[in-house]
TrEMBL record:
<dbReference type="Pfam" id="PF22691">
    <property type="entry name" value="Thiolase_C_1"/>
</dbReference>
<protein>
    <submittedName>
        <fullName>Acetyl-CoA acetyltransferase</fullName>
    </submittedName>
</protein>
<dbReference type="InterPro" id="IPR055140">
    <property type="entry name" value="Thiolase_C_2"/>
</dbReference>
<feature type="domain" description="Thiolase C-terminal">
    <location>
        <begin position="244"/>
        <end position="393"/>
    </location>
</feature>
<dbReference type="InterPro" id="IPR016039">
    <property type="entry name" value="Thiolase-like"/>
</dbReference>
<dbReference type="InterPro" id="IPR002155">
    <property type="entry name" value="Thiolase"/>
</dbReference>
Amino acid sequence: MTSGTPYGNRRVAVAGVALSDCGRVDEATPYALHAQAARRALADSGLDRSVIDGFASAGLGTLAPVEVAEYLGLHPTWVDSTSVGGSTWEVLAAHAADAIAAGHANAVLLVYGSTARADLKAGRRTANLSFGARGPLQFEVPYGHTLIAKYAMAARRHMHQYGTTLEQLARIAVQARANAATNPDAMYRDPVTVDEVLSGPVIADPFTKLHCCIRSDGGCAVLLVAEDYVHDLAKPPVWVLGSGTAVSHTTMSEWDDFTVSPAAVSGRLAFERAGVRPDEIDLAELYDAFTYMTLVTLEDLGFCAKGEGGAFVEKGRLLRDGELPVNTDGGGLAACHPGMRGLFLLVEAVRQLRGEAGPDRQVRKPGGALPQLAVASGTGGWFCSSGTVVLGRG
């Protein structure tokens, strides 16, 4: 097969997934983590690197993804580097799946790597993240309206409007840490309590430290292929059933409702295109830079009604053996968060659907069957963008 052949509407499968070394990685460059994850994902697929004719990457290099493709020795004829924050990887996966379905590419590699923690430790960067002061942002920057302050403001609005409590938000962090406890790749595995979350140092009211994602190093890769390659795969395929993307705002003054994220649009589109309902989903991997992000995404994807997220996250519903397992690896609150975490959501969803998570943390349906449907939903900026992908077995 050659790129550009008009195959029509082909099915798209996840052929391989992998993590690079994650957590505390002091001796590697971001490029090395990209390469390590890419090699491992290719080995996981059982395919030869010669099949790769599409490449997507963001977050590294002056000419991303050209520099990373060159480093990996790839010469793609389809490329994408759409960068919309944390939702980047779900958006890139949607673009890649569309390209494969249309015959514009046959096998697209998505790869990410970051040494954000190591760079900070070594003094190669500071902890501050600036999006600049040009354009619409010029009207907020003078007031010190930081990224975390934007999330905190939105959380306060949800608390005011719906009675959501800090204790309910804290339970999200507690359940994330509990899910991480059985993940050998997680950076933080010790349990925490609601009281420990609430009593930590305040970062931006109402968020204490444990309401916020961790900072780690790490990378991962996902290989998407046309259905033509399925018979050559080393493992059963996981199918891309549907996807949706959406953007909302840049400045907070243009955000219509602080309690509604763009996942309300991307999720609806993804479920409609996949032909499934939220209540059919067996597990959800959601971007969780902050506890409030998890709560509002659960509402906007339709797992509970608007304003009921606080009650929904109580009683252990998000645990691996709960009603709706969420962030089964521990998420960005406990497992890893090296910058843009969205690709990690897809890796974990695929591993769970394949039944590869291991005996201590594998999600099972009632009766012991493996999960059939998963959703991965990434959020970018301060709820500025969203990408949602529905995946399925068989």
